[in-house]
Amino acid sequence: MSELPKGGSFLVQATDPQSVFTPEDFTEEHRMIETTVSRFVSDRVLTRIDELESQREGLIRELLGEAGELGLLGAEIPEQYDGMEMDKISSTILAEGMGRAGSFAMTQGGQTGIGSLPIVFFGNHEQKSKYLPGIVTGELIGAYALTEPGAGSDALSIKTKAVLSPDGKYYILNGAKQFITNAGMADIFIVYAKIDGDKFSTFIVEGNSEGLSLGLEEKKMGIKGSSTRTVVLEDVKVPVENLLFEIARGHVVAFNILNLGRYKLAGNSVGNAKLALELSAGYANERRQFNVPIADFGLIKEKLAEMATRIYAAESMLYRTGGLIENIMHSVDTTGPDGGRVAAQAIEEYALECSLNKVFATEVLAYVVDEGVQIHGGYGVIAEYPIERLYRDARVYRIFEGTNEINRVLIPTLLIRKAGKGDLPLMEAAAQLRHRLESEVAVGENAGDAVQAARDIFLFVLGTAWEKLGQKLLKEQEILGRLADLTIAVFGMESSWLRAQKALARDGEDGAKRVTNLAKAFIYSTLPRLEVIAGEVLFALSDGTDLAAQQAALRKLVQYTPIDLIGLRRAIAAEISEAGKYIV
Q1: How many C-beta neighbours within 10 Å does residue 46 have?
Q2: Residue 167 phi/psi, 5° resolution?
Q3: Distances in whole angstroms, Cα of residue 16 to Cα of each of 26, 498, 503
Q4: Which burial class, exposed, middle or buried, applies to 204 when counting CB atoms under 10 A from its CB (0-12, 13-18, 19+)?
Q5: Percent of the chain, pLDDT > 90?
Q6: Helix (H, G, I), strand (E, B) or coil at 170
Q7: Rg (CA), the chain
Q8: What are the pLDDT digits (tens) for 363-419?
Q9: Residue-by-residue DSSP string for 399-464
Q10: Rounded to an integer, what distance in angstroms lies between the CA atom of residue 446 and that of residue 456?
Q11: Which residues of 457-476 are buried (b: 16+ CB within 10 A; e: fewer)?
Q12: pLDDT computed for residue 78 by the predictor
């Protein structure tokens, strides 16, 4: 087996198109899973969306039970504990398909992700045997209780306290958790508390525990069908055998679970965005003004094309990352008693990619639903039209699983740490680029050159920022945020282009025309924005002749031959309108 790429390696070297996974590589089994989840969401969830949104008593348990019967709750759970133990592409397909399910996606995600993965990865055999089979069937509902009134993004500052009982049989927990998904019907809670007030640890707390109580359902802007409540712990006795993993190692559990949580939320976002585009394209085809469908209007075409283009980039990033995670899982032995921890540690290699997928996909979703409302006009804000619900539901995605601001700080921080440990030669690549800039840089002639230009812009800005600030860079959030945006752009542009190149090699120019058009539209509309982002950082770091030199170097990197984006978007929009949905 060839050496697996390090997380973030796309920033320092080009990638072979044949090495990336794309949706066009789905197997027959993948297609069957895609069909199963699509039918379940369309037939069982969306047909009852009004009941779901009004939180009809017992409906969520009923739907989770039906999902369990279809195998939609056990993707990540080993067969030993009655799970499906699917490959990571299959679990990604499930996450994307569930994205169409509105607030039920949050319930299902809490069940199959953060509400059970801590046990999958860090539980012992007895804990897994006791709880996981019930999670698979939907008989047990899981919830994840980390956030507190005073501890959101700063998770390690939680106040919930755990004290060992005098007889050594229980931990006694006191505290309150806030905004807990699935709280209203949860049978088990993954609860974080500090033993003796300072040892950040994780516990499995059963929902019927004496002293555990719930606040009222939160009245939310969106995802109304999901349960969101405060959880209050008053002298709750938790058996010592329900300590999850090790004392003072709760942060290991929390941060590793967030990696897959962010990745799956990106999958939800892609599925949700596709639904929003389908609704918008269908409406634009039917709605007539001035005796023609509004889909024929140029500015509506631009909206449909840009929606599809961004979805294509997000989808390409998502499944490329799924392929990376799947490959690294094949490289480690997860069969032993510590197999879960081995798996979590392996996935951590791509924590960076999980974060950038989360940021990009949730912001693509925000864009798509916003434009969807605009295409619907006045009807877009009427509850009778599903796009109104999608618009409201989408807003919280940028807050879940670590806000996008936190993730934007995390992305360059992870990169700098990798570079510091010698795992990623970022500074060496930046130095080589500086040397290359001393000679003339050729004008980019194609989209592949534009992808390399994006990579070079990132390295140039990072190298300049590190040279000026050193370790102080990690405190400059505005600059870190822009470095994150450059990182996301490189991964998105390259993932789009690699997918198109792989299609070209497989299907020829005519067969790959659709994906090539989408890739070019994303790449050539993104590259000019990178010059603006980079320029803002340079202005913050330099002045006078130094700034002039930096700007001159930047201009060398962004020389490229433009294309007709208006014509390209018209071609994309025509195919979207004809199909009435997202297609590649």
Answers
A1: 16
A2: -85, 0
A3: 19, 8, 13
A4: buried
A5: 95
A6: strand
A7: 24
A8: 999 999 999 999 999 999 999 999 999 999 999 999 999 999 999 999 999 999 999
A9: TTTS-HHHHHHHHHHHHHHHHHTTSS-HHHHHHHHHHHHTS--PPB-SHHHHHHHHHHHHHHHHHH
A10: 15
A11: bbbbbbbbbbebeeeebeeb
A12: 95
**Inter-helix orientation angle 351-376/298-330, to 10°:** 160
Q: What's the rounded Cα separation, in Å, for the pair 143 and 146?
A: 10
Inter-residue contact 240 to 171 (CB < 8 Å): yes
Sign (positive or negative) of CA dihedral 98, 102, 107, 109 = positive
CB 243 within 8 A of CB 202: yes
Instruction: Please state, for a pLDDT cut of 70, what percent of the chain lies above it.
Output: 100
What is the residue whose two structure tokens read 């599809």? 308
Quick one: pLDDT at residue 444?
80
**What are the tokens at 306?**
């840009």
Q: What is the pLDDT of residues 545-559, one digit of tens each?
A: 999 999 999 999 998
Burial (CB count <10 Å: 0-12, 13-18, 19+), residue 277: buried
pLDDT at 2 over 90: no
First to last CA, the chain: 31
Cβ neighbors of 193 (< 8 A, separation 6 or more) are 158, 160, 161, 162, 171, 173, 175, 201, 203, 233, 250
| pTM (two decimals) | 0.97
Scanning the structure block, which residue is given the tokens 């070079």? 456
Handedness of CA 267, 270, 273, 275 (dihedral sign): negative
- Tokens 């094949």 locate to 330
Q: Quick check: 573 and 305 in contact, CB under 8 A?
A: yes
- Tens-place pLDDT, residues 228-265: 999 999 999 999 999 999 999 999 999 999 999 999 99
Reported as a pLDDT band with limits 50, 70 and 90, residue 1 is: very low
**Residues 408 and 484: beta-carbon distance below 8 Å:** yes
Whether the Cβ atoms of residue 102 and residue 391 lie closer than 8 Å to each other: no
Catalytic amino acids? Answer: 401
What does pLDDT average to over the chain? 96
Contact status, residue 562 vs residue 524, Cβ threshold 8 Å: yes
Residue at 129: amino acid letter: S
More confident residue, 81 or 445: 81
Q: In the chain, what are the domains?
A: 24-141 (1.10.540.10), 144-244 (2.40.110.10), 250-405 (1.20.140.10), 409-579 (1.20.140.10)
∠ CA 98-223-62, nearest 5°, is 60
- The answer to whether the CB of 72 falls within 8 A of the CB of 94 is yes
- Bridge partners (DSSP) of residue 206 are 188
Please answer whether residues 207 and 195 qualify as being in contact, where contact means their C-beta atoms are separated by less than 8 angstroms.
no
**Alpha-carbon gap, residue 266 to 344, rounded angstroms:** 18
Measured CA distances, 538 to 179, 452, 461, 550 (Å): 40, 20, 7, 7
Q: What angle do CA 448, 526, 408 make, to 5 degrees?
A: 110
Map tokens 């209203």 to a residue.
Answer: 184
Residue 298 makes CB contacts below 8 A (sequence gap 6+) with 570
Closest alpha carbon to 190 in 218, 164, 160? 160
Angle at 548 between CA 542 and CA 553, to 5 degrees: 100
